[in-house]
Amino acid sequence: MLEVVAASAADDPLTSVMGVIQVVLEYVGTIAFAISGAVAAGRKRMDLVGVVVLACLVAVGGGTLRDVLVGNLPVFWVRNPTYLLVAILTAIAVVALTRTRALDVLQRFHVIQVSDAAGMAVFVVTGTNVALAAGASDISAAIIGVLSGVGGGIIRDILADEVPDVLRSGQFYATAALAGAAVYVGLLALDVDPLLVFWIPIVLILVIRLVSLRFGWGVPTFSYGAPDDGAGPVGGAERGGSG
Questions:
Q1: pLDDT at 25
Q2: What is the dihedral of CA 199, 204, 205, 209, to 10 degrees?
Q3: CA–CA separation, 139 and 135 (whole Å)
Q4: Distances (CA, A) of 171 to 53, 124, 168
Q5: Of 31, 41, 61, 110, which one has the fewest beta carbons inside 10 Å?
């Protein structure tokens, strides 16, 4: 649980509801990340063990990286293996669902992308908070928060022998995470109400991410010495770059 929320009013019903919503979003994000890992494994024709391993690494990779960086050991999934169990079950479910059109339906309606954005937003905020609680500076905590949100995807792409999508997706991803982490740190410094401190960055990250998905917005890419594919001059900068 976020310390800023828990410290506000342990007996406040509204705070309790917010805490439950946070946990729900964390599990939603875990499931979404596990699905992305399992799908990436399927595209690389991995066996069932590979699917489960990659799904778990994506689901808990960012939080593991966060805990290691701040010395919060044992890492969170060792203390609470439920997250790992959820990732394993999700990976197995993905393999089973590939025999149906369920995954195609989820992707068509962007359910997985929205869930991924929600989970990433929560992990960025909680990651930043954990880093601050461990004594990290504001800047370091924001960076650790970003890594907590996007680290699993980076691990997924590296193991799948791909350039990390966060560096080339053409949409705001890491940028959204950094904006949310910075706002979170700023709101804490301003001593804003704890519930607002928690929810404003999450909403901000979601809005940036979903608008980027809808309209394809991103930061400029840099191309130098790459084969000319007709997209623009070599060495130029073009829209839709590193997220």
A1: 82
A2: 140
A3: 12
A4: 27, 17, 8
A5: 110
Using an 8 Å Cβ cutoff, are 141 and 120 in contact?
no
CA distance 85 to 100: 23
pLDDT(28) > 70: yes
List C-alpha distances in Å: 232 to 47, 165, 215, 227: 39, 21, 20, 10
- Using the structure block, give the residue that is written with the tokens 């962007």: 110
Residues in contact with 136: Cβ distance below 8 Å, sequence separation at least 6, in sequence order? 70, 144
State CA 207 to chain mean position distance. Answer: 14
Top mean pLDDT of 17-21, 81-85, 99-103, 215-219 is at 81-85
Contact call for residues 205 and 175 (beta carbons, < 8 A): no
Nearest CA among 20, 204, 193, 15 for reference residue 124: 204
Quote the CA–CA distance of 156 and 152 in Å, as a whole number: 6
